[in-house]
Amino acid sequence: MEGYNFDARKNVVQYDDVMNRHRRAIYAMRREILRASDISKRIKIMIEDEAAALAASPLLTSDQFEDIVKEVIPFEESTLDRLFDAPADKFGETLKTEAMKFYDARQKAYESDIMHRIERDVYLQILDNLWMQHLENMDHLREGIHWMSVGQRDPLVEYRRQGQILFDDMQATLRHDIVRALFHAQPVSEDELDKPIETELTRAARQSVDNADRIIEAEEFEEKDFKDPLAGGSATKKQKTSKDRKKAHKAERKRRKKAKKRK
Predict the structure, then answer these.
(1) Residue 165's CB: how many other CB atoms inside 10 A?
(2) Global confidence as pTM
């Protein structure tokens, strides 16, 4: 079979353009977080989006779903009872409401200045880690993408498509990990809070390309840079309305409570 006519040298600039778009968006976001004294509005949006993603989970009707929710938001038993007793078509809204109540309680538990610093530090640390992983993933993708030339597929088109999927996955993981970390965060000393936000991971990322610093200075962050072209699908799909979900969760919760009493 005749393969696609692929010239790696000819396409190297176009490959770099794909990666640079990702880099511009990430570094612009990082600069925005560093400059902001309060990112609670951004955090609230993340919480709402994560609640919507949980409510749209394909594991919604499974026995494991309660543990999936608790892994992100450590609700008390009374809150879980209220959540899973909600009508099936109201589950998503109830989950979002309870998540926001939990967040408000966390904010009240800390002084506002301390909470703002915790949110910024958590956001930046997770972003740094995920960005470094993304760089490695994109490197692996680029190394193997030339095999796409077999079967008349354009490697550059596939690189862009798969690169966007990786970037979208990174954004979803960023949201999930930040919400989970903030909801499980514990108080730390003032010394820990005063440590510099700049990390080794970010410095390594800055050195990954020659023009990284110029990119940081040249671009401003826009929401469209992070827009998932496939968004509006799973997170906004109509909630399952089957009564089986409610019955299954009630039965599972009763079973767990009985098991606890026997211990």
Answers:
(1) 14
(2) 0.72
